[in-house]
Batch of 2 targets.
Target 1
Amino acid sequence: MNIQAMKLFLQVVEWGSFQKVADQNFISQRAVSQQIKKLEEELGVLLFIRKHNHIQLTAAGEYFRQRCELIIDMMEDTVGRVKNYKAVATRQIKVGYFSPFDAALIRERLLALPSETAFTMVEEGIEHLTSDVIMENLDCAMIMDDYGFKRNFEELGLSTVTLFEDTMGFGIGKRLGIAPEVSLNDIKSLPVIYYSPENSNYLKEAFLASLNREMHTFDVQRVNSYEQMQMLVSLGEAVAFYPIKLAKHFSNPTEPIQYVIPKDYRSRRFTFKLCYRSKINNPTLKQLVKLIIES
């Protein structure tokens, strides 16, 4: 399977016709049909239901369409970044983050660095970020600490500096009609979701550690899209845990979500920190850490 085959498949989806795609690419309809058939054989599923003068995506085809769009966008973004990469830049720094909230926090500090600085930004789960810093794949990364449990980063050869302190609470869809004076009992029947860009149990374990033992029956699930999390919470299909101050600051005023701390929840204060290897060899990282300490 290759990118060109995926692009041809997406063209067929868009045009709804093998012949139109063939005309657009100056190839025969037979060539288009063979390419789609080859994809189906490779995947072991039908991508289209073929009818007289009409084709329709199967459920598998719709899922494949979504993944193709994601893969192609990622590839094109990667190619563009590589072509524009400032290989000769005198200042470079590779930074990781795990959510829109910590990304916004570190962005403010990165903007204070000299304009000639070249940035590589990576979004990953917290466990992955920590290991990438240790393995020197990243210069530094944003992590969350002091929530439910506290990690000993010094044992890993890492240092940290605190950017922001917040309190964890819940986002609840306004359409549920639950008053601001909500209790955990009011929401215990709903799934509790959290966003992480990849498989990660760190936030789940931290959340459960913050609850009384009798509340560990909550169904805690990960979603891999922040937009999906906001949609599910808005529709009242789930609740989610958020950094309350940041969520209120960055939320859309028209968003149908209320951010609250349940009256029987031991609201936990926690910290957003930048972690990095204790021995700093990158002068740009050294400057970033200094900016954070002095801010």
Target 2
Amino acid sequence: MLPFSMTRPAPSAGPGHELVEFDRQQINLFAAQVHRCEAHWHAAAELICVLKGRFLVSVDPHSQHLGPGGMLYINPERSHELQALEADSQLLTVQFSPHLFEQLQPGLHIDYQVPDASQYRPRDRQIKAALRQLVAHDLDDAEGDALRRTALIYLLLSSLHQASAAPREPARLNLRSKDQQLIRHCIDYINRHYQRELPLAEVAAQANLSYHHFSKLFKKVNGCNFKDYLAQVRVNRARFLLKNTQLPITEICYSCGFSEHKQLIAAFRNHCALTPSEYRKQYLSQLQRDYRDAGRDFRCLEWDSQILGLLDADPPRAS
């Protein structure tokens, strides 16, 4: 059972794609202390629940803060990344095998998130209870009652589906393999040429598609438009340089493909809810100081009753 940051890249899948293996298991279930996880995507749907601390999570072009008890469902093939905002931030992750959906609802789309436990409503408590049942069963009977385990998995998925604000997204249900391959090829091209001016028409030419056809197909396959994805790639590179070099922010701006400083600032505010200067200062003053082992971005927690203790922490109720 390997968590997302430890899975190996799929052959020729392009930068950022990860192959999540299940070894005949229906889910991967694990808890971890996480520093950061760079942008990636995979075929497995994923539910994360914050056990401790706070995270900034980005899914496609959208970013959100999650605090203790916060939960977020990430649909398959959606580009996502996360960054801890406090030392010793921990989360629980459930990765669902794509095979779970084959006989249920192919193309099932779930839109669910809650920022933290203080904003729980009845539907959120129902999801948390289903998650707790699954964890408790895994701790008590990991290799025993497979039928009960399957039932608990589907109970969790059913609770998420019922709570979803948009349970189905028809435009994403019938994606052809050829379309996906074309867009992944274009994403690879973007990832190799984002440092310079990169118009949409140039990337569309890589797929031998018209400007408008490519624009629509890119959003359909990738979940965000070309402009937002390009900005996300550039911001990711800028974040790396801000954290790992002493380069002036203006130099970082141009080396990442931004045409002017204010464009970098706007992109950072959109994706990180911070300015570049604030991001660097936060990293140097907090994360770098608090993490003694700065080279480790991920550490699995012991899979024992303390996980239930963190899940059982009494959440404040929304008024």
